[in-house]
Design goal:
The complex is a heterodimer of chains A (about 725) and B (about 160). Chain A is of the alpha+beta class and about 725 residues long. Helices cover about 30% and strands about 25% of the residues of chain A. Chain B is an alpha+beta fold and about 160 residues long. The chains are: A alpha+beta (about 725), B alpha+beta (about 160). At the A-B interface, helix 1 and helix 18 of A face helix 2, helix 3, helix 4 and helix 5 of B.
Amino acid sequence: MSAKAYSVIGTRPIRHDGADKVTGRALYGADFTAAGLLHGAIVRSPHAHARIKSIDTTRALAFPGVKAVVTSADFPETAERMVDLGEGDTPLSYARGNVLAIDKVLYRGHAVAAVAAASPHVAEEAAALIDVVYERLPCVLTAPEAMLESAPQLHDGKSNLASQFQHVLGDAAKGFAEADVVVEREFNTATVHQGYIEPHNATALWNNDGRVHVWCSTQGSFVVRDCTALILDIPVSRVKVTPMEIGGGFGGKIPVYLEPVAALLSKKSGRPVKIVMTRKDCFEATGPTPGSFMRVKIGATKDGRITAAQAYLAFEAGAYPGAMVGPAGMTVFAPYDIPNAVVDGFDVVVNKPSTAAYRAPGAPNAAFATESVIDELAQKLGIDPIEFRLKNAAKEGTRRVDGPKFRRIGCVEVLEAMKNHPHYSAPLGGPNRGRGVAVGFWFNVGLQSSATLNVNADGTVNLVEGSTDIGGTRTSIAMQAAEVLGIPVADVNPSVADTDSVGFTAVTGGSRTTFATGWAAYEAAQDVVRQMKQRAAKLWEVEAAAVSFDSGVFTSGGRKLTFKELADQLPATGGPVVGSATVNPRGVGGSFAGNIVDVEVDPETGKTTILRFTAVQDVGKAIHPSYVEGQMQGGSVQGIGWALNEEYFMGADGTMMNSSFLDYRMPTALDLPMIDTCIVEVANPGHPFGVRGVGEANIVPPTPAIANAIERATGVRMTRLPMSPPTVMEALWSAGN
Amino acid sequence: MTTTFRFTVNGKARTVKTEADRPLLEVLREDLGLTGAKYGCGEGQCRSCTVLLDGKPVTSCVAPISAAAGKKVVTIEGLAKDGALHPVQEAFAAEGAIQCGYCVPGMILTTAALLERTPRPTDGQIVDALNGNLCRCCGYPRILAAVRRAAEMRGGANAGQD
């Protein structure tokens, strides 16, 4: 906990883009328009698994108003090679194949072809005239089934088990032999979607000079640039991405789906082409989070010391390899100091959309399993569930099962805050009620960020950065520059720039933006101070080293100039001052989160009502506490939806049966109690202001905390997500209630 | 077949010649260039497309343009008057009831309509009014706070305070 007094950090200013966002002026991707704009429509596979025998575009091309048609045959002819789309190496054919299917369709909704026309309706009508002949193949929809020898194979000549790993720490067999109590259970979780309200969109113009300009809603403009260039086999310098405002992402707006298609359509038609997904497209053909099958076993001694743990994690990657099972393996036992552990992870392709990141990807699945077993162990041992966790909590120096040793972390502090919270000792006040707790971990990421600060003569500063702003990061980044410069945050004017106008900046994801891009802004501000000290030295005819700077005032001897006064002198002392910085921080600080949840379960219907919910999280340092609370509430509510309602209902033929907001039920205002927040600040020694990153850890504990609360209310342990009324009823009946 | 429709948008008389079954949202966004109302689902389930039709919130993605004929439409662009934000807009900005901002136009218009008919809503009435407006970033707690603040701001103004 930092005792340092800040003037800007820790305050709650109104965000810089507030006026644009309350007046409807903020321009999101679909709001973009251009002279001569065409509209694109995508032809999607009606089958979950089929070989494409032929595609005939004749009728579509002849349809009045149609300007271009593309299929995967329009991709450039390049030999197969491995490419990095930001999340590890993948074959180029996979990267292209998810954008427009090559030879086979691997999930219902898989893009097969696209049409550009003068209006969206003409494009849709023409898309229906593209004749695709399919040879249907049997489909496989779950990881355990897809791993069977007899399962239909998605990628010819390659096993559905795309990869596997094993982490070993100590000797698990020996550890289990030392245990007095061992609990082992199997868990299943359904596929869920990020559920951002703004559908994916992209507009592209392939200019006559061979340069491609893309306007889209994305979490990473540089990812879009690099992926589009790789897929189209052109240099990155020929692609410029202008990020529009983005209506939610949660990890789902990292991959490219439409951009290369819009670019190909533009190349053929010579005009800008815009494509916007429908809600059904978003559900069927973007990247939801993996469904999973997990088995977790944990042993402990009578006095409550965990001796060993074992996890088997099989995740559904969807159509192409890359389920977030790796992060699940890194986080599954992270809150605990366990001497002996083994974790096996399996990345399995199935005939569902290719999965993408979703807020702490992989960690909520794993935590559902671990934290349920931990809770059951505590019950069997007769130890309070928070005390049991505290007894075994990870701390600085604890080695994680996947290898790294923790630096300073706040797991203990989060558990202490939960124990001491009035919620934990409040009476439950009624029958069929229960209180559950759980904790969860997300490691957070660093990655590259860039920022530039242009000092204006009036003492204000223009901040140029490359992190698309989903939750107020313009402000949380600007606040860090303002703190260094000793000026009000209102005097820092932030812009999110296109990829030609700012240095490389990785995605808005991994809870990294306030941490890493904020750090770039901090360094850029240090650069400004360094340069302005030189200007003051020039004016005062002293060495730059003789100039001091504190709280926005430059001094040397008895002389003094405020930041604003000196800014006014810049033209006369050598011209403008531009501070810039790039970072690739190593000092990432992981974040722990914990929940206390009270539920009431209706024994007649199985419906679970959340009565009270407290979210606790170690955030390192809260730059803008309101936005920190907003992230904590947001992750909690997504976790509540995941726990109680959300799931892809899949027909046996691989059709998603509930691809609309009517049937895919996300939490509404009526479903929720107040989500109380409790910010814990254990400064991250790896960041100048102690920031850890706050976006993700909060979605990890809700599903097990709610499961544990349901168990306390009913005596029945839930092992399947979502814990919807029918699932709860079934569990109650099986238990003989 | 096209039909001519006359209606008022943000206080201005407009005439649009188009197919009668086109959604109001599409006409507002594509024909009139008013992109403040957002497409989220196309089936009236998320309410990010909310506009006011004769003062009542409607989901413009499922309302045909014919439903607007002869009526007054107010979109988010028409809420601020004479350069001054509407109290609900001010409250949303001040309360930080925005994460990505995509649902915000619909939330603000729904709130403005609520406060017109119920200037001092209870929490239950606020939740009932906003229940269908989805916010996935989950600003509901902050959005509810913004609605309460807006009610106070309007109430204060009505009582001749401020």
